[in-house]
Every structure is written in C-alpha cells, then in structure tokens.
Amino acid sequence: MTLRWIFRVDTIQRFLRVARVVWERGTVGDGAGYSAKLSFALDPQMFRWFERDAATDWRFTLLGVRVHYCRSYGGRFAA
User: Fold this and answer.
1) What angle do CA 58, 68, 6 make, to 5 degrees?
2) What is the CB-side half-sphere exposure of residue 66 using CA atoms within 13 A?
3) Which of 30, 45, 75, 76 is the most interior residue, by most CB within 10 Å?
C-alpha cells in the first residue's frame, strides 16, 4: 500500500488533488488480481451524488471533498 501526497491544481477538471492511496490485491494481470486507487481532492462543489464511468470505479463529493475509487485488472496504477 502506498500513500502519495499530490497537492496539485487540476485546471481542466477544476479541483485540487490532495492525496492518492494505491494498493494491489492478488496478482495483477491474471484476471483475478487487480490494482486499486483511492484518491482525495478538494472540489468547489459542496455535493455531488455517486457517479460511475465504468463498473470498476465510482466517485462522489461531500462537503467539498471528492473521493474517487478505481480498479485496474490489466495493469498497475502509478503510486
């Protein structure tokens, strides 16, 4: 498990990236194991309901804190 402090402004998506936690479960790439990422950001919007781009991720914003979870079955996330 790896914790990385980011503290970078994302000018395209308009929020401040704060931190990212990355971990692996099983053997990545064998179809069963995966790499997972949980990221935190400060968003100017106070509330945003759960959103999904795919079956392997979700995100929401509560009180200006954006939480995003994502899994990758084919490769590793950068820490």
Assistant:
1) 160
2) 20
3) 76
